[in-house]
Automatic annotation (TrEMBL):
Keywords from the UniProt entry: Dioxygenase, Oxidoreductase
Keyword Oxidoreductase annotated: yes
Protein name stated in the entry: Catechol 2,3-dioxygenase
Molecular function as annotated in GO: dioxygenase activity
Biological source species: Asanoa hainanensis
Length: 153
């Protein structure tokens, strides 16, 4: 039995969780718990890992079901594009970078100072992109520079 504070079941209102389709529940459970420090709430069917104030639900993909007719849950195909990713905000990005790297996380780059924040990215075992950021300038009103595509024409 899990502690009620660790289980994503609100007594009122709404609580958001993130479902990710994984090829190996055991491998992903290990990554999100051992490497990133999450708490395993349910081992599988679905696997639930509490990561700070967020719950990650993980299961393999599968065919349509009666409650989602015509919809197949497919494995993520990693590549050079993405449209959604997990964003983790941390108090000390350098400490996380060093700790998680020592546990096997492979970052795309070390943390980079972007003025408004320090930021870096890594991928989970299925190739999902994870942003790790520490607010710095944002805490004092400094925002990221506008990109040309953000400016009104």
């Amino acid at each position: 039995m899990t502690e009620s504070a660790d289980f994503p079941a609100p007594t009122e209102g709404i609580l958001a969780t993130l479902f990710i389709t994984v090829r190996s529940v055991a491998r992903s459970r290990d990554f999100y718990s051992r490497v990133l420090g999450g708490t395993v709430v349910v081992e599988e069917n679905p696997c639930i890992v509490k990561l700070s104030n967020t719950w990650l639900l993980m299961n393999p993909g599968g065919p349509p079901t009666p409650d989602k007719p015509g919809i197949t849950v497919a494995n993520y195909e990693p590549g050079d594009t993405t449209s959604i990713f997990l964003n983790l905000r941390v108090a000390d990005i350098q400490a996380c970078y060093e700790d998680w790297s020592a546990k096997g996380a492979e970052f795309l780059t070390p943390p980079i100072d972007r003025g408004a924040e320090l930021r870096c990215y890594l991928r989970d075992p299925d190739g999902y992109l994870i942003e790790v950021g520490q607010s710095t300038g944002l805490l004092h009103g400094e925002h990221a520079a506008k990109r040309p595509e953000d400016l009104r024409g």
